[in-house]
């Protein structure tokens, strides 16, 4: 009897143990299953995000204190334009129909032409919402033009700086490639430094103070491309006609059709076909095709020389030895007596010697043949800031001792008298 009782007790204990073990097993199975579902969900969400994730990291200038990084994808294809209505591409650019741009420029009329370049003609235009724009119409079909169009759209839809010309939108159908930019009322810098045949030259010379500020703003544009974007962007066609001036003569860098992503390795380069504009191309790039941000620094130095001397980079009609601006100016830049002789006569001595020597020294460093010894654009910006600041302060107190009595047009005078309508 007792044995039977003992047997039953053991049986009950075994049953309880089996039930407990079975419930633990079921509970573990459930936990494992729900963990599996959770992980699967997370992985698929990550994969989805990665598909729209960037291979190119920008560090925008606007409010970019700290290390906020905007992520963008350089390899996304350009959107197909909608032929019926104006749409906005996923990159935030407006997609226009050819008809809309045709009517914005009164049928691309000659009277609206503001300039011509390698890509085609540039027209002044007014959009249906009243915005004034510059419309660049590709006039030669071909691989190079199409490539420049694509690079321009892809680069400019991602770069954001007050020192770069804003691309507002584009039209891309089977017959037309058109780019729509903010309108820069005073056109290209070169028009104000020397008359250029074929352009609507405004022929008003820039004063020293305005030249210094343009030099600083253009330097900030390149500094952004080289040092605030990762990997860096090399402009490859930096020149005075690609520095555009707004109605108050503030400068913005334009034309990214030839731009290239640089090497992200310190001291690295990318190898490319040599493209650019004669007189601005760095010697090592012309010789080897090795492109670095220092190639842009060289081109920037050439623009500084244009600002100082008022001369075009190459003019073989000049007396022997003076045809190539860099070769003529470089030996004179570091000599106090000679540097005055190369200054643009249109400046009529408005500058102080101290400033000229400083700007000439920056130009000399930028155009030196050894690329490694050229400064970074951040160094150039730092050197120019105090010069521009000094001018702002001196004009505030109405005292500008370095200026001559002969008054050349000030920024405001120019703004009123020469702004394009
Ligand atoms: N956004 C703009 N606003 C006003 N004028 C412009 C604009 N873009 C270009 N231009 C004018 O058109 C000219 C030709 O420009 P572009 O086609 O870029 O030629 P380039 O090859 O000389 O840079 C410039 O020098 C400038 O006078
Ligand atoms: Mg241009």
TrEMBL record:
Stretches with biased composition (Polar residues): 401-421
Domain Protein kinase: 108-388
Region called Disordered, residue ranges: 398-421
Residues that hold ATP according to the record: 136
Transmembrane segments: 12-36
CDD domains assigned: STKc_IRAK (cd14066)
A single GO molecular function term of this UniProt record: ATP binding
InterPro entries associated with the record: Kinase-like_dom_sf, Prot_kinase_dom, Protein_kinase_ATP_BS, Ser-Thr/Tyr_kinase_cat_dom, Ser/Thr_kinase_AS
Signal peptide coordinates: none
UniProt keywords, alphabetically: ATP-binding, Kinase, Membrane, Nucleotide-binding, Serine/threonine-protein kinase, Transferase, Transmembrane, Transmembrane helix
Homology family: Belongs to the protein kinase superfamily.
Protein name: Protein kinase domain-containing protein
Record lineage: Eukaryota, Viridiplantae, Streptophyta, Embryophyta, Tracheophyta
